[in-house]
Sequence to fold (199 residues):
Amino acid sequence: MSRKSTEYSLLASNIYKLQKTLLPLQKLTGAYTEEEKIRIKTFRVMAHAELEFYFENRCMRVIEATKTCSNPRTRPKILASLKCYAAKKEGRYNTKKNDADVINEYRSKIKDNHGVKENNIYGICNPLGIPIEVFNPSLIATLDSYGSIRGFFAHNAINHTPQDPSIHVVLDPTIEKRAIASIIYNIRLIDKIFESYLV
Fold:
């Protein structure tokens, strides 16, 4: 497998630190204290933030690479994708915006992103010409579920019970570790796709 990117290494390192700091030891009884439950919820919210940071910075690095790209095919390809995206938004066949304009608009889109669900990933990757199809479908499904539970934790009181039957919350550190490990593994498999846009 190819070399890990700086962004991926940072993601994996930060997730490990969060696990060591926040997740309590598993209890076979499942009887966690209120403090331990808060720590498990906090882990989900913070790990989600790290995932969001990874994807956004991976995309931003692709944009930054267009400034120094020496490959005569890569830079025009990315800029063409951004211009097609801008034209589609404008309802036109083509856009009169220059390279700097479409890049700045894309940067604003990254800043406005808030999540790692399918629509978030598609929203920041598609303008670069990275199709959602390159992502493992199971990864997208896992990110959707991960994001839903994170959203519930982030926008409700700590003792609130989900009313939405699609949100199934089980507070267990082992489940959290397994979920994030699966996500991290699958992200590693697509990290090289982002890297291919930098050469």
Observations:
- The CA atoms of residues 169 and 180 lie 15 Å apart.
